[in-house]
Automatic annotation (TrEMBL):
InterPro entries: DUF305_CopM-like, Ferritin-like. Residues 30-49 are annotated as: Disordered. Residues 53-201 form the DUF305 domain. This is DUF305 domain-containing protein. Residues 32-47 have a biased composition (Polar residues). Gene3D superfamilies: 1.20.1260.10.
Amino acid sequence: MRKSLIGFGVAGVAAVALLAGCGGGGDMAGMQHSSTTAPPSATGQQDGHNEQDVKFAQDMIGHHQQALDMAAMVPAKSTNPKVTDLGKRIAAAQDPEIKKMNEWLTKWGAATATSMPGMDHGSGHGSMPGMMTAEEMAKLNGATGAEFDRMWLDMMIKHHQGAVEMAKTQQEKGSNADAKKLAQDITTAQQAEITEMQSLLKSS
């Protein structure tokens, strides 16, 4: 009888040990599962945006559109081949950027250039740095030859300086990686064009 009890006791201890082992294995499996859980998608983080990203895209679209209006005046009014060439390059760079920013706004569920009220870029946007007023645009449109070239260069320098200011704000306060990269690209390209235009003004 005593042997039976001892045997039962050993069997009971073995059973408890077995159950504990199973439970421990389950806990380890759970721990392993949690440790291998994938982190949030890097793409999802890049696609994130904040209010500054939306403001940057909406404002820069209007800013770029006025630059395109100014560039469109050049072929018929300029007498300087270098100014004509620069006008073409500005249009070629900024038109695709407008399309890109409109795509972002659509993706973000924000108002695009075609749906935003008051987006008449010819009327000027005093709240944005570097924008020309309607009166300044009319005066530019009325000039020709060397007078136009000087006026256009002077205005476009100010316009570019405003865009660089807006782009730097985006780099500081924006969240979306693509929008911040575009802001950096705008800063680099337009600062180079400012230097080019200042040189053209000095030689005119």
